[in-house]
Amino acid sequence: MNDMRIADRTVSSDTAKMTARGVQVYYGENHALKDVDIDILGGTVTAFIGPSGCGKSTFLRCLNRMNDTVSIARVLGEIKLDGEDIYDKSVDPVTLRARVGMVFQKPNPFPKSIYDNVAYGPKIHGLTKSKAELDQVVETSLKKAALWNEVKDRLHAPGTGLSGGQQQRLCIARAIATSPEVLLMDEPCSALDPIATAQVEELIDELRSQFSVVIVTHSMQQAARVSQRTAFFHLGHLVEYGETGQIFTNPQDPRTESYITGRIG
Ligand SMILES: Nc1ncnc2c1ncn2[C@@H]1O[C@H](COP(=O)(O)OP(=O)(O)OP(=O)(O)O)[C@@H](O)[C@H]1O
């Protein structure tokens, strides 16, 4: 942990964008997540770290109700976005996922053109009124995802023809095209080479000026590079949550210390 570039630790907001209280997740009989309480801050990158199977992705997927799509998953407790219960019956999960977007581990562009990948969300949510407005959203999203210059002359070529790193930036552009308030990223760099990883990490830092980012990562170096807040999960428990520098240099719980020093993994 010595040669780490450290992210700017200042957070632009200390108000909670999302809050979770007493969250439990069961997959059938498997109690995967146990009594998780957390406040996700606005304008902040929050990293979820912990050993394989500790529940990081499960909790991430609770934040935009992706676990609704898993028939054996049961989510208990309360999760709020701007004070509103996202599991309330009146909340449409598809609309919620436009506000709380997601980028997955493997780049998964639709088998459509670069343009149509980005235009998809604004179209289905009726966010634009004209073709010119949609063109503008596509361009702005690709610019925010640092991909515009590489693709502006081939917007109608298939998204699947891009390199892995470009495909992941296309998926980020697709996720931000609906102007989400929170962006969830589940190990977004695990399929990328070091150069593409550095590009996506730089992007994450820029994106937090517009919304909260929550990133699951296996890499402690990555958590230290990109996040201002870190949550350490172990065996389904949220063991420790705090300022990233403090978690890595002065952990309060012996389990966190064991993990960051490599004694549990
Ligand atoms: N779709 C699913 N169906 C059944 N069990 C699941 C499912 N997804 C996760 N689990 C179980 O929930 C527990 C937590 O898994 P989860 O994927 O959330 O952990 P993780 O910390 O993200 O792991 P990794 O770092 O390996 O991705 C594990 O016991 C896992 O087997």
Automatic annotation (TrEMBL):
GO terms for biological process: phosphate ion transmembrane transport. Residues 18-260 form the ABC transporter domain. It comes from the Bacteria. GO terms for molecular function: ATP binding; ATP hydrolysis activity; phosphate transmembrane transporter activity. SMART domains: AAA. PROSITE patterns: ABC_TRANSPORTER_1, ABC_TRANSPORTER_2. It holds the Pfam family ABC_tran. GO terms for cellular component: membrane. The keyword Transport applies. Keywords: ATP-binding, Nucleotide-binding, Phosphate transport, Transport. This is Phosphate ABC transporter ATP-binding protein (PhoT family).
